[in-house]
Please model this.
Amino acid sequence: MSGPPTARPVRAGGPPPWLWLTLFLFLADAPALVAHTFGVGAGLGQLDTRERALFVTAMLSLVQLLPLFFLMAAVLAILAPRARCRFVERRHGLLPPEHPFFAPPRRATGVPGLAPEPYFPDQIAEFLREHAPGAQLRLSTRSGLSARVYPGSWRVTRVGVFAPFVHLWETDREAARAVLLHELGHLRRGEQHVAGLGSPFTALVRVWPYVLAGLVVVPVTLLFVTGYATASMTLAQVVLVLFGVPKVLLLVSAALWSAELAADRSAARSAGPESLVRALRRLEYGDRGGLARLYHPPVRLRIWFASHGESPVARLLMTLAWPSALLVQLLLTMLGAVPAYVLRGATWDRATGEVLAMGHEALTGQPAWWATFAVALGWAVVTGVRASRAGRPSAPRSSLLYVTAVLFPAVILLVGLLPVVSRPTGDLFADEGGTPGTSTAPPRADGTPAACPSPSAPPAPKRPQGLPTFTTEKGPTTGGPAPTAAPLTFRTLAVTSAEPLTGTASQAQDFGDRLRRARWTLRGDGSLTADATEIPTLRTTAADGTTRRFTGQRTRRTDVSATTAWLEARLVVEPGTPPRLDLIRAATQAMRAVVNCQEFTSTSSTAMRLSLTLRASAQ
Model:
């Protein structure tokens, strides 16, 4: 089945090379991604050292590092195209046309002296030689795909065709040619090195939903099912990770969609939109299934763009798809940061102000929008020059497209440069209703300035949320604190463990060192005291035959600070074993200063768990 020869492909002047920009931005962001991931892991690890916390830490860190693994794979695939070629051809069973498996059958024309019609591999290879000299054909009998382009080496590109395409070639030659022209559209833009068959970028989009389900949902569910004591503290990091997941999909999917629609436009201009539409309807071009829409636009959308590819609306949508995804990515980051800050103790208004300021600074402080503006500007200039040299002066609608493509990131950058949002001053996590943020002296009712606030200590900090506790443990009790017959005295024999809950390991170790020689006294009224100044008087909250639980707190003030320490203890005295004292200590310091008639506050917290082996001593 033959038809009129298809016109040679023309440059379609598609959208800017967003796919390549995505790769470069991932590379530029790699160091910050690694630092952020390990920072999150360290922060989660400080919440608790039990197995569940370590498990969640490892899973969430892996989720954030996974895009980096695919990025490295994409770079390696670009640097080693021959290795990617061997992997792709072995996986998909792609063979050269001269392979014995594809030996042509004997074909007779029935007309003496007339040569038989070439076998289909020869016809396809001839089409490729005409439209893309140097491109090599590979064949596979497998189904599920139609045709794909992939690099054979630095200078050679291969086009793999599969069984559904061969059937289309025999039944609708013009539609099949449109499919090949689509793949050659990728080739002319060099996208086979980043996308195409065997692309790590496509693989990232394929596996990302499963990563979300397996490495985020499962461990987070474990936290709540098991009633993990620090779940509220961990949840802030979990929210940030969950909102970070679609950020990865947005940019990569937008870049892949833009590349596919640009290749469709190139094929439609060369073969005609009717041929491409028939091919899309026959093959549902690309992989099938729900996840295929993440890296290939839906068929109905592609048909609309193929039919309206020359309209200003379609070209504008195609050009602005990637910058729009970049803007949505920023909005998702801000949307996830607000509840994360609130979970960590900030008020909604303080968190909102902080996040707005962060988003405003990100517009100009990160390279994404500057790079987008540069690429859009360079694309507009190069495309316009090429059109002029080809004798096709830019039409008014094309000029408007170029201007809009450049203005979109330019306006975003202008918003980032203008002082429209300011970062709230003071401590973001100041206690609500207690320690205020930074403020100036409020004016009087008549509008005249009031006196500057005077330096003074802030209110006592509140107890940190999400701390583990001994007082909630269930067990047999006497119904109230049991008095002791006479005071009992103990000395610290050894500090068997000192683990940070928040803060650093050195802080927990330092506190444990100060208790190595401490003397403890359990009095007749049930109170527990120590000669160490860091330990307040502890009062009995529950007791049974071998275990007694205590709680206590102390606040210290200076002229500019207030520090509150909370302490819970569990004393276990069993016959035949040395007494054991388990401690949970948290301390929060709030500081307040007045500088230039402005009030500045800050807070810092540490929490730790210790276990001490005691030795009974004479009074």
Residues 231-271 form the longest helix (41 residues). Confidence is low (pLDDT under 50) at residues 1-12, 40-50, 431-449, 475-480. The first strand starts at residue 136 and ends at 139. The radius of gyration is 34 Å.
